[in-house]
Specification:
Helix content is 18%, strand content 61%. The protein has 66 residues and is an alpha+beta fold. It starts with a strand and ends with a strand.
Length: 66
């Protein structure tokens, strides 16, 4: 039986939600091993002067505890 744990990571990007998601995974992978999946729980943007200036994601990352 595998033991799984879920952490929540928030990240941002000037480019896209996809880029923000990749940044969240990459940053988490520096300290978390055996990642199995990620779920983008929410997406939001920052609006400045009538335009999107930043994309934000809240990602739940599941990993196996060894």
């Amino acid at each position: 039986m595998a033991v799984m744990k879920v952490i929540e990571v928030m990240a941002n990007s000037d480019t896209s939600w996809e880029d923000a998601t990749r940044k969240a995974i990459k940053h988490a992978s520096k300290s978390v091993k055996h990642m199995k999946s990620a779920f983008v729980q929410s997406q939001s943007v920052v609006v400045k002067d009538g335009d999107v200036s930043e994309f934000r994601v809240n990602v739940k990352i599941t990993f196996e505890v060894k």
